[in-house]
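Here is one record:
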Amino acid sequence: MFDVGWDEMALVAVVALIVIGPKDLPDVLRQVGRWTRKAREMAGEFQRGVDDMVRESELSDLKSQVEKATDPNALRREIEKTIDPTGDIVRSLEPPSLSLSDDVKPAEAAVSDVSAEIEPPRKPPEP
């Protein structure tokens, strides 16, 4: 990552020994080790978080695919679209619609017209 070789590490160690001193150098190295460990733990947590997000997005994609595959209406629509893409078969199987023109009267109107034409019987006049 930083491309630091052994000669550069040795130079840093010599400078640290001179600047910090031999007495405090072990404590400083321990503290640097703790910081390094914390940095690696944080990087690991970040990586796990990213992996979890990727896994969740993949799971949601798989879940939507499964829901699409198990939807009975979707399967029926696909079959209908494959068999009858223009819808001609469905239209030919529909019952015919009856439209009433002015010349043809509905059955109720015809019955009422017939009953209006029949006159009720007349009573004979009384003597």
The mean pLDDT is 78.
